[in-house]
Structure formats: structure tokens, C-alpha cells
Write a structure and sequence with these properties.
191 residues; mainly alpha
């Protein structure tokens, strides 16, 4: 481990810019607000926003920094739209969630996770739009699945209803196709 003291610039700095090095970057309490501001304003490139999450989650897991610092960083991602960055955010949340299984604080943690996910969920919707970007298509499954994982009841109920509707339509489709092949169906799916 090597520590380097640098003069503090007026504007935040991102260590390991471009994520080219194979190491974790920790930020002191006086640097966190500045780098957080750069994340929120989307002044950092996607790779650097991704790396900030990855490093902060790893350093939290190892006990190098506290959970409050992680939450401080994650708050800046409420307007994030990159699938790659959200994969890293959700992976980090799931790592923490696994550590909290059967702990009294897990329900509060789920509520926090849902508060992070709800803004992006409003942007991806349930159904694709014609000509939507691939990023949005990928985000939809990731975000909706994560809402379900963290217990968002509206999402769970809607998913169950859509699944039932799809299963019913599929069963009806098979029943009709078998019936058209010679009268009564030889066997029936879903009925």
C-alpha cells in the first residue's frame, strides 16, 4: 500500500481516470463531496462512474470505508441512465443484501434500494417502445427484476398478472392449434 498526498484542487478529482489501473481508489471525507458532485452532474465518463461504484462497494465490503460513504456516493446516481453503471450499482446492493439476510435492518435497506430504483424504473416502463435504445431494453429487465428482488409489491403484482396473462394466451394458442389439426385436441396445455 502506498499513500500519496496531493494538493486538493478546487474541483473534484477522479483517481484512476478511465479505470485503466487494477486497484481500488478510496476518497477521504473532504474529497467525497467534490467527486459526488461530479457524478451527479454527469461530468464523469461512464467508465469512471462505473468504477466509483465498484471501488466504493468493494471498500465498504472490506471495511475500509463505512456504509454511509457508500450511500453518499449512491445518492448521486439517482439520475443515472447507463445500463453498465446500473449493473454495478445493483450488484453492490445485492452483495450488501446478502450480508443482511435475517437482520432487522434488511427491510430498511430494501426500502433504500427501492428509493434508488424507482426514478429509473419510471424511465424504462414495462413495455418496449418502437425504436428504443438497446440500453433501455437491457435496463428494463435489470430494473424491474431488481424492484421485485427488493420487495416492491406493485412490481411483483404486475409481473404475476402479466405472467398469468401470457401463460393463458399461450395455452389458448396451443388449444386452438391442436383443435384445428383434426377436430378435438389430442391433449391440452394449461387446461
Amino acid at each position: 500500500e502506498k499513500k500519496i498526498n496531493l494538493p486538493l484542487p478546487k474541483r473534484g478529482i477522479k483517481l484512476n481516470s478511465g479505470e485503466v489501473g487494477f486497484y481500488r481508489s478510496a476518497y477521504t471525507a473532504d474529497l467525497l463531496p467534490q467527486i459526488s458532485d461530479s457524478i451527479e452532474k454527469r461530468e464523469l465518463k461512464q467508465d469512471d462512474r462505473f468504477g466509483m461504484v465498484r471501488d466504493t462497494v468493494a471498500l465498504t465490503g472490506s471495511g475500509e470505508i463505512g456504509i454511509n460513504e457508500l450511500f453518499m456516493i449512491l445518492e448521486q446516481y439517482r439520475g443515472e441512465t447507463s445500463y453498465n453503471v446500473w449493473v454495478e450499482i445493483i450488484s453492490g446492493l445485492v452483495e450488501i443484501d446478502v450480508l443482511l439476510v435475517d437482520q432487522a435492518v434488511q427491510k430498511q435497506f430494501h426500502q433504500y434500494c427501492l428509493s434508488l430504483l424507482k426514478p429509473i424504473a419510471a424511465n424504462v416502463n414495462w413495455l418496449p417502445k418502437k425504436g428504443e435504445a438497446n440500453n433501455t431494453t437491457l435496463l428494463r429487465a435489470l430494473i424491474i427484476g431488481s424492484l421485485g428482488r427488493f420487495g416492491h409489491q406493485t412490481t411483483i403484482s404486475k409481473a404475476k398478472a402479466l405472467f398469468k396473462k401470457a401463460a393463458d394466451l399461450k395455452a389458448e394458442e396451443h388449444n386452438l392449434s391442436f383443435a384445428s389439426c383434426g377436430g378435438s385436441p389430442m391433449f391440452q396445455i394449461g387446461g
